[in-house]
Amino acid sequence: MRFDENGLITVVVQDSVTSEVLMVAWANEDAVKLMKDTGYTHFWSRSRKRLWKKGEESGHFQKIISMQTDCDSDTLLVRVEQTGVACHTGSATCFNETIFGDTDRTSAVIPVLKRIIQHRKKDPSPDSYTCKLFDDENKMCKKIVEEAGEFVLSVKDGSQEEMAWELADLIYHAMVAIEKTGLPMEKVFEKLSERMK
């Protein structure tokens, strides 16, 4: 790895399930070694001039799932299983302020929707459609089958607008089932990786 003139390397931290960028920090050689040795993120604080373990004060630890370097070996990409929130402000991610464009047409909607579904499970509301699906497993399962069928028909019709609508419905209902059953996405990704062979 190539550390800069201050002995630091940039570390981009992503959620291992959603790929949401949680934070950016810096690490020196000691912090990188600690990450490899312990399996948890450690960084170098440029303001406090000391090593720190993410979550040492908040309890919001980051268990490392994978570490990669970029093509120049001067940046680390660390995918983690986040406990609690990543940002010191109490937000799930440090990247909350949109200063150009919008995120509505990007995959950034997935982790936000995932958090909303998780919140509905933890704090049910009788008016919530998601909660009604949680409470009626038969309805939840039927909706997945129904939306899959409607997506297939929209593919046959060739309308991208209809395909987008139906696929969004299918993804949402599948996400509800994933949350309801506790299916670890790591298992799904592992099965998907087998299909790359």
Tell me what you see in this structure.
The protein is an alpha+beta fold and 197 residues long. Helix content is 43%, strand content 19%. It has six helices and six strands. A four-stranded mixed sheet has the order 2-1-6-5. Helix 2 (109-122) packs across helix 5 and helix 4 runs antiparallel to helix 5 (160-181). The relative contact order is 0.10. The model has no long low-confidence stretch (mean pLDDT 97).
Helix-strand layout with pairing:
Blueprint: E1 9-15, E2 21-27, H1 29-38, E3 42-45, E4 50-53, E5 62-69, E6 75-82, H2 109-122, H3 129-135, H4 137-157, H5 160-181, H6 185-194
Parallel strand pairs: 1-6
Antiparallel strand pairs: 1-2, 3-4, 5-6
Helix pairs in contact: 2-5, 4-5
The stretches of 5 or more residues where confidence is low (pLDDT under 50) are: none
The chain-level mean pLDDT equals: 97
Order of strands, main sheet, comes to 2-1-6-5
Largest pleated sheet? 4 strands, mixed
State the separation between the terminal residues, measured CA to CA. 30 Å
Overall helicity: 40-55%
Q: Nearest-angstrom radius of gyration?
A: 20 Å
Helix-strand category: alpha+beta
Q: How many beta strands in the DSSP annotation?
A: 6
| Share of β-strand residues | 15-25%
Q: With helices defined by DSSP (H or I, 4 residues minimum), what is the helix count? A: 6
